[in-house]
Amino acid sequence: MAPSAEILCIGTELLLGQIVNTNAQFLAGELAKLGIPHHFQTVVGDNPGRIRRALALAVERAGIILTTGGLGPTDDDLTHQTLAEHFEVPLVRHPAVLALIEERFRERNRSMSPTNAKQADLPEGAQILPNPMGTAPGIIWEPKAGVAILTFPGVPAEMRAMWAETAVPFLCSRGWGQEIFYSRTLRHWGISESTLAERVGAFLQSVNPTVAPYAGNGEVKLRITARAADIAAAESLIAPIEASLRAIAGLDCYGADEETLASVSAALLVRTGTTLAVAESCTGGMLAEALTALPGASRYLRGAVVAYANDLKTSLLGVDEQRMIDHGAVSEPVARAMAEGVRKRLASDWGLALTGVSGPGGGTAQKPVGLVYIALAGPAETRAVEIRLGAQRGRDWIRRVSTQSALDLLRREIINREAFGIMKER
Amino acid sequence: MAPSAEILCIGTELLLGQIVNTNAQFLAGELAKLGIPHHFQTVVGDNPGRIRRALALAVERAGIILTTGGLGPTDDDLTHQTLAEHFEVPLVRHPAVLALIEERFRERNRSMSPTNAKQADLPEGAQILPNPMGTAPGIIWEPKAGVAILTFPGVPAEMRAMWAETAVPFLCSRGWGQEIFYSRTLRHWGISESTLAERVGAFLQSVNPTVAPYAGNGEVKLRITARAADIAAAESLIAPIEASLRAIAGLDCYGADEETLASVSAALLVRTGTTLAVAESCTGGMLAEALTALPGASRYLRGAVVAYANDLKTSLLGVDEQRMIDHGAVSEPVARAMAEGVRKRLASDWGLALTGVSGPGGGTAQKPVGLVYIALAGPAETRAVEIRLGAQRGRDWIRRVSTQSALDLLRREIINREAFGIMKER
């Protein structure tokens, strides 16, 4: 079995929740790219006993140990000292490192305090892992057979520079990076995680590439991860699985990786040379905001009307007052009228409208919180859908899922019309 | 020695570096608030053997174990199953939980798949830790003396709600939270971090409470943190410091803690009984979205017009075409006309408008990316400001800071008018 890597992050500020551990995320992603197995991450405070305990455990579990933090000049910076004690070697002062530290202080016209010299004391036998951005160097140390320890400061920019410039070449020289992990994430809307997982069940057992489902904010993702010699080889492993998964999911799969329902819908509008106008009520501008977050939105978005007050649904969108009295502002007929009204008044090919109860107040037995009507007025006809999101996930969630559902309705309609070759038939 | 807590985060996506571990940061901060010692955090993938290994270690090292992740319906969600195996008890299906899961699916007109039932299977003897936002509940389980295990889903919003509603009361009932850390964060707009830090310099040396500045997304925060027996005692330590800091910052301090420029502006509109209408261009709905994110927005927001295409600035807002030709769509005169037009056409007391270049394209020497004009039409007069945000921070940042600056203009204007006692003089 190939040795695995373990990440050991040292710093009391992590245990106090004062900072989020982006170093662990960065190193984890980099290990995956190099194809280095990685099974455990540990966070420990600036405490010699507990650092040694975590270190002993890491040495027992892994062959490559990456530490972050504890390289500074103060008394609670203990990483190199604790490593030396654990492997029972002395600390050795490196004049070259000391000179470099003194130089850094001269550059900034600052006088160096004696404690800074401490940063030049490294475990006997360790190589220097140079820090191009700061005063504290790390080490690359193989204290015994099958164990390589690389230490980094906690400052993310310094850690990343040291990783790229020295750690990666070292690991590749040790035979890593021959294989990489490479992922594609397929994104789905309008299907539950469990239903999708059942449909693609056979693929979830696949070994290379692996396929794993994730859910959140109303969408479901399938992550396809391949292990291969390089990205091209990984993509050729992923391609057939991706094709099969897309075939199974059909239109429920809206895109991959960085694509969003907004970016996919925008691309469809651009490709079909059609324009959109938006009428919002419960989402209060969220749909327009999502569409204008993309550069070049003026190519496809005419504009939007947020008719929050009901009388504006009439004065700005031309919704018939009687219709609102008969059906209520949150109703399919009003959603249809809003979509048709905004399409006409803003002179666009498509009119997309939402009206609903986003809560927490305003719900009734007939019109509960989470009830939303979405309508899309197009060149030929107007489609409408009713969605019921429930109240328990809250106002923000209802508004977000409603916005995504509206974009999904537009996406499916354009794709279906393209399929039927009836775009621009107005 | 009091037992300590340990955080065990379960999820392969953490080991692949696909997400940053904000759950660990949140829980670590909450443990600190409750005064619960916390010495180790471990991250492990969706692997039964390694989850059990990490679990055994946590049980040996700590008395309170908090896990996140692995509560979903799919085969790689293993937390409760692995816990049951480790403590050699069976999983028991909870009909009440099953009914709740079925209910959630009914609410959303989704059919529940058999695998979802798995989320109702909990280790024998464990209490349910209710999940108010999702289908997967956690557990509170004391499988043996001196060991309490609390499990949470990986979805941050669900985890946080479960923590606040159930976990905190449980831990307090066990005697924790006797001495607490309690913070108030003062929020500022329109002043730089260095300027504010200089003005409040003397307070940054304070010990209990401590005062620390933070900056981000155009705002500057001062966090006041007190250590005390309870919240009341902490607040009495914080109150005089807060009063002094607010006095120094004046109108640049817009609120505290969860308050936002949107919530503060909304409260001012409600208190003065005035209504707002919004006209947006470069922000594309972001301002309206921020104002409608708050419950009860219909009390003060009439609606919004996103006039993204220039001809809509004329047809929907009545901006004089010649004025756009003379000054350009991104200009103070057009911003003023948009504010006055939306105030008139949407029949509101205030009209707030933005027009600018959010980039990345569309900038010129005279009208560079990041140039934004904001205008506020009120009962008496129309005010306008020009802001130059530069291009390098990108489109999203320009849109966000523009939106906040518009809210800040409204906030200051209402406060000044209140001070002069000339509200409602139309």
From TrEMBL, chains A, B:
Pfam families xrefs: CinA, CinA_KH, MoCF_biosynth
Residue stretches making up the MoaB/Mog domain: 6-174
InterPro entries: CinA, CinA-like_C, CinA_C, CinA_KH, Competence-induced_CinA, MoaB/Mog-like_dom_sf, MoaB/Mog_dom
Origin species: Gloeobacter morelensis MG652769
NCBIfam families referenced in this protein's UniProt entry, alphabetically: cinA_nterm, PncC_domain, PRK00549.1
Similarity section: Belongs to the CinA family.
Taxonomic lineage of the native organism: Bacteria, Bacillati, Cyanobacteriota, Cyanophyceae, Gloeobacterales
Protein name stated in the entry: CinA-like protein
